[in-house]
Amino acid sequence: MAATGKPSIICRSRELVDRGRGIRFTVRRRGETTPAFVVRFDGAAHAYVNRCAHRSLELDWIEGDFFDAFGEHLLCATHGARYAPASGACVGGPCGGAGLVKLAVREENGDVLLEPGDDIHLIDPEAVT
Ligand code: FES
Predict the structure, then answer these.
(1) CATH code at 16?
(2) Ligand 1 probe mutation, 50, 51, 57, most atoms within 8 A of CB
(3) Strand locations in 17-109, DSSP E?
(4) Predicted TM-score of the model (pTM)
(5) Is 90's C-beta closer than 6 angstroms to any atom of ligand 1?
(6) What is the pLDDT of residues 73-129, one digit of tens each?
């Protein structure tokens, strides 16, 4: 089934520092209100549902603090599951090989945009015309 709707602005591109703090946002996904986040890694923006594959908890205890101390992996603060920032794949800890749910984003005109999908949209989106 084809994607519907328009992309929505999550934040300004300049707000995302490479391997720095992420920005949290909320999506409606499969009929549920779901926390999500976007980070920048090696120059590109990557967004995920903020739900650890281990226990379905949000990754960040400190809001926006998703990277480990080395800026190499996304880290779940609860039990230390680690994920590859560019793919969301489990790379260590109790995620047991299960990854994060990736969301489609792109950057355009200085904005980070969430691509619309059949089952997902930004809550209170600023639709791009
Ligand atoms: S809830 Fe994330 S590692 Fe356990």
Answers:
(1) 2.102.10.10
(2) 57
(3) 23-29, 32-41, 44-49, 74-75, 82-83, 90-92, 102-103, 105-108
(4) 0.91
(5) no
(6) 999 999 999 999 999 999 999 999 999 999 999 999 999 999 988 687 788 654 444
